[in-house]
Design a protein that fits this description.
With about 200 residues, this protein is α/β, with parallel strands linked by helices. The protein has two domains: about 120 residues, Rossmann fold, CATH 3.40.50; about 70 residues, Arc Repressor Mutant, subunit A (Orthogonal Bundle). The protein is built from nine helices and five strands, in the order H-E-H-E-H-E-H-E-H-E-H-H-H-H. The two termini are about 30 Å apart.
Length: about 200
Amino acid sequence: MSVAHPKKINEAKVLVVEDEPRLRELLTRALSGWGFATSVARSGEEAIRLTESQPVDIAILDLNLPGKDGLETLRRLRERMPNLQAIVLTGFASIESARQAVHLDVVEFLTKPCHLGELEQALDRALRRIAPTPPAVLDKPDLPPPTAGMTLDEVERQHILRALHEHDGNRTATATALGISRRTLYYKLEEYQRQGFTVE
């Protein structure tokens, strides 16, 4: 996995390993809405089988899975995918499991039920580990200098829409390139649509 390859952001694949149907569905809907290619598994064994043919970049694992627990599943997944980033969810956190999670260098250890905002922040951190975010630059050579009549909001809108165009409408890649969360980008784009601007 090349950390410097910008296309990696566009292709970031997330695996949800969760045995609770309602939470699994909620996570899948949220991830799809944020622009991630998502696959699901109901157990550690299923996750291991699935990733043999479909490698992933990020795994969201329930700690208390039937059969192999989340941390053992993560160890097995990392044998094939050493750069896999992991977010661990648990309803029954213990000091020992937290210590093991730290040892496995997980991105985040979240207690269920977690707020989707916390999950989104953890995903942003995982993406930065995969491909570090370059600093956002407002004065790109092809960006015309703001005229005296342009407001800061107009300059920001021009910059965001240009970045979206440069990433072929991929919102996850655009948010990462701009150094903002997908949620912030979605709010901005909805606002621009209400103002009558075309959003790719």
